[in-house]
Amino acid sequence: MSGTKTHGMTRRTLLQGATAIGALGALAPAAWVNPARAAVADGEVLTGSHWGVFYAKVEGGKWVDVRPWEGDPHPSHQLPGIMDSVMSPSRIQYPMVRRAFLEGGAGASPETRGAGDFVRVSWDEALELVTNELKRVSDTYGPTGIFGGSYGWKSSGKLHNCQSLMRRMLNLGLNGSFVNASGDYSTGASQIIMPHVMGTLEVYEQQTVWPVVVESTDVLVFWGADPVRTNQIGWTVADHDGYTYMEEFKKTGKKVICIDPWRSHTAKFFDAEWIPIRPHTDVALMLGMAHALYSEGLHDEEFLDEHTTGFDKFLPYLTGESDGVPKTPEWAAEICEVPAEKIVELAKLFQSNRTMLSSGWSVQRQHHGEQTHWMLVTLASMLGQIGLPGGGFGLSYHYANGGAPSANSIVLPGISDGGAAVEGAAWLTEAGAASIPVSRVVEMIMNPGTDFNFNGKTQKYPEVKMVYWVGGNPFAHHPGTPGMVEAWQKLETVVVQDFQWTPTARFADIVLPATSSYERNDIENVGDYSARAIVAMKQVIEPMYEARNDFDIFADISEKLGARDKFTEGKDEMGWIRSFYESAAEQAPGRGIEVPSFDDFWEKGIIEFEIPESSKQFVRYADFREDPLLEPLGTPSGLIEIYSRNIEKMGYDDCGPHPMWMEPIERLGGEGAKYPFHVDTAHPNSRLHSQLCGTSLRETYAIAGREPCLINSQDAAAKGISDGDIVRIFNDRGQMLAGAKVTDDIRPSVIVVNEGGWYDPAPGGEVGALCVYGDVNTLTVGIGTSSLAQGNCGHTALADIEKFEGEVPATTVFTAPAG
Ligand SMILES: Nc1nc2c(c(=O)[nH]1)N[C@H]1C(S)=C(S)[C@@H](COP(=O)(O)OP(=O)(O)OC[C@H]3O[C@@H](n4cnc5c(=O)[nH]c(N)nc54)[C@H](O)[C@@H]3O)O[C@H]1N2
Ligand SMILES: Nc1nc2c(c(=O)[nH]1)N[C@H]1C(S)=C(S)[C@@H](COP(=O)(O)OP(=O)(O)OC[C@H]3O[C@@H](n4cnc5c(=O)[nH]c(N)nc54)[C@H](O)[C@@H]3O)O[C@H]1N2
Ligand SMILES: [Mo]
């Protein structure tokens, strides 16, 4: 696992699994072009993105309108923002260099990073500077001098994958001398704990499919999950099939429960029962339910005996025999603020009905986040419905339309990062870890040479001097922005390549303008889980200003490093796209399908695949349930591990051998809690993280020109805050402004500020400066979830809030810096 590969690789593995299911279908369905669904009007181009497939209308070389593809059952309302992003005032137009860097060389006046003083340079000059820095840093500091693990939601597409392309350049041109990163910010804790417990990553795996849930599930629980909001996007190109089935489930009138401090979009859509839990206390709630089941003999002993290991070791903890604290519903109620009677009622409701526990990922993006899904699996094991149609648990119904039945399709390969050509990285490991858990980047820069734990291993943080970031926005995504400002000051060189003047670009020395996805050609699967089409991501308009494709930028740098031919393999854009399609087409006979030639496909723009009946009946873990000996899990015991000997051997004091309630570093009601509000940093409804923050879409949700902050009406009254007021939110780590939205959709003592608001510090560059737009990561905790997974804690933050008095500083982050 390395870097964003977790996204790329597992999602690809998943597609392969998906098509394997399809191949079992008895009849051989063909791939087809549906003329009614590829009805490109005059002046229109059909293309695709994280938000789905759509038509872009072009007039006189200008992109003027956008309309969704007919095959999209629930288009995202964000589409107009995509169009605006190519021409918004936040667009990077030319190569730019920070003045002090240009005049004083690498490392000059690092405190002026983020102050916005840039000079325009030519492409030749910019590429010469970048290449010289790559060579200088790697010659001077050796293989760990450059950090190339840049993380983020770069655009879809199998060729213009800027992160693979960057690492390809570093692998082929610099013999792999760079530090990489593993894992992601989405599921940092879960993707490490789940293989110990279930033998797979779980979070990116196909779910018991929606048609089965609609048919068989009686009680559908969304546990810290808001699929109506978060299924808008896909890692490949979104299909939005989950919405079709959510509509169907709603029509059945069956029970839906949302356990969430926020009455979410999903809670409203289903008119669900809302359990407004205190944040970060889900493990306590689950333990209270487990205790209720056990004390009334309602747990499924047979399932626990045959399919799990270690319940006997967990039991003394549950009953309190081992630590003197019985985890009763009353005990849990004190912590999670769900009444004890309710806890018992829910436990019995789940036990006596076919129940699907569908969990999102915020519950693991927090301190000790490993415990939540481990305890969820334990609770589901006690309920004994894992592997039954519509029962058990699911960790991806809210993500990229997990649970949408998989088509019998072909899977596209993508550009490789060239790592296979590099001789082992042993020399790199000696100088420090060849790869760090992705969210430890600030810790790494601040503590070179220091040991860190990760999933049973101890490694050393390498000494990084140069950072090259593409396709991500760490100054929006990393918890603890002030810490990142400080860390960046220790670097000699920062290169950022993007098409938007993001906060990260503003903190760079060299800024290179990339094309957006809509200014080049590419190809992608539609539906991360359904894989039900392949779309030609056709170029909509010519590159604007001086923007260049990441591919061409890295090919030029590779040339300067003597590796152009290795980098391009002699192929241009369309040559690569054709090669991906033709290589995928070789899978077609094995799957019993026929696909059009590349030229036919490209002309039509999209091909669709049939979804076989067999994949509409897929039940996760049905085989394992039926025969755990013949169909064992990938865990050491082959069973669900409620107790893990491997984790026991690691001996960590922040992640024990069975799931436990562990106090997070801070929480509402926790001992010594210094601030009265929990900040819920849920993902934005009208952005993809920070993407589109610079567009006109912002005007549809901003309050007083700031990022919204949802606050409960009682809290607002107590603080003298009215709807539409500008508020200051602050703690010991940082401070930000926001626009108040007073509502009873958020429980008291919790405020919601979505992640991804652009960091707009006044004054720029200063650690702890007031963010005048509303980057919530000014407030969050930068530590790892535990020694086991070292995931990020983006949802962990307590803060206080007050009405902002005094002169309101203007936002400056949405236009290009001067120069
Ligand atoms: N507090 C808190 N923080 C969080 C989270 C949270 O829940 N709470 N969630 C976390 C999660 S799950 C995630 S995934 C991260 C997301 O963090 P990021 O993925 O870093 O966020 P994005 O805004 O999607 O950034 C993608 C960047 O890539 C650029 N880009 C797009 N296409 C291209 C391209 O073709 N070429 C180049 N060069 N650049 C391109 C975009 O303009 C944008 O700046 O945030 C994390 N941060
Ligand atoms: N529109 C849109 N969709 C997206 C994204 C986006 O940026 N915008 N990002 C995509 C990505 S990369 C990812 S990783 C996924 C993220 O998917 P998730 O991580 O599941 O999404 P979040 O919005 O962070 O959290 C989901 C819900 O958990 C609730 N919550 C917060 N803390 C707690 C808690 O302690 N306990 C409980 N029970 N609930 C809690 C929040 O109020 C929210 O409603 O979304 C994906 N989908
Ligand atoms: Mo994510």
TrEMBL record:
Any idea which UniProt keywords this protein has?
Metal-binding, Molybdenum, Oxidoreductase, Periplasm, Signal
Q: Which PROSITE patterns match?
A: MOLYBDOPTERIN_PROK_2, MOLYBDOPTERIN_PROK_3, TAT
Name what cofactor the protein needs.
Mo-bis(molybdopterin guanine dinucleotide)
A molecular function annotated in GO for this UniProt entry is: molybdenum ion binding
Any one cellular component term from GO for this entry?
outer membrane-bounded periplasmic space
The free-text cofactor remark is: Binds 1 molybdenum-bis(molybdopterin guanine dinucleotide) (Mo-bis-MGD) cofactor per subunit.
Q: Specify the Molybdopterin dinucleotide-binding domain's residue ranges.
A: 677-795
Q: What Enzyme Commission number(s) does the record list for this chain?
A: 1.7.2.3, 1.8.5.3
Q: What is its main location?
A: periplasm
Q: What's the top EC group for this one?
A: oxidoreductase
Write down the Pfam families for this protein, in alphabetical order: Molybdopterin, Molybdopterin_N, Molydop_binding
What does the function comment of this entry state? Answer: Catalyzes the reduction of dimethyl sulfoxide (DMSO) and trimethylamine N-oxide (TMAO) to dimethyl sulfide (DMS) and trimethylamine, respectively. The terminal DMSO reductase can also use various sulfoxides and N-oxide compounds as terminal electron acceptor in addition to DMSO and TMAO.
Family named by the database record: Belongs to the prokaryotic molybdopterin-containing oxidoreductase family.
Fetch the NCBIfam families from UniProt.
Answer: bisC_fam (TIGR00509), PRK15102.1 (NF011682), TAT_signal_seq (TIGR01409)
What is the protein name stated in its UniProt record?
A: Dimethyl sulfoxide/trimethylamine N-oxide reductase
Q: Which organism is it from?
A: Aliiruegeria lutimaris
